[in-house]
Structure formats: C-alpha cells, structure tokens
Amino acid sequence: MEKIYVISSDEWAALAPSFKLVDVVKSLRTARHGSLVESIMEKKGLYSHSINSLNRTLILVSPTLNGNFTIIEGNRRASALLSLKKLVGAQIYLGVSPKIREYFWAKHTPL
Question: pTM for the full model?
Fold first, then answer.
C-alpha cells in the first residue's frame, strides 16, 4: 500500500499532505467536507453496505513493475476501499512504461 499514489492534481493536493493513498485515507478522518470528500464518503457507504455495489476495478501506471504506482482511474474508489480495509481483492489493470514519468498525472509520485 505504501507504493500506491493518487493522481497528481490540485483537488487531491488540498486533501492530504502527500499523494500517497495511505495519507489520503488518514486525512479523510479530519478533512473538511467538499465535493471530493463527500464523493469518497458516499462510495465508502455503498461499499460498506455491499462490497459489490460499485465497480472495484482500478487502473494504475508505473515506470517499472516494482512501482511506485499512480492510480489514473479509480482514485475515489481506492480511497473508499482502503479506508474500509477492502482494497485487497480489487481488480487492477497495470500499465508499465518508463515514459510514465513524463505525464502530469504522475508528477508527484516518487520514482
């Protein structure tokens, strides 16, 4: 879990001290409510009621098979699932290329 990062964007930067998924989840406990937090909490509520109520597929990218990994699709789902300790078992598609380092959505993922 320590190698998974949310997408690099201003929206996520305002939520947590880093883009690391575990930091995002820790920040949810004390975060001010906004559309991002509310969306994550809504998904969390749905998943806690029924784990199959929403899609659990995530798309991640990495410059190598060893990570670090940036979530490019499913950031809110991953945050909700990890906060419920139900991220393990999610279906993940992984794209691997050294060129990932050049894209803005991975700019805050340590290489």
Answer: 0.91
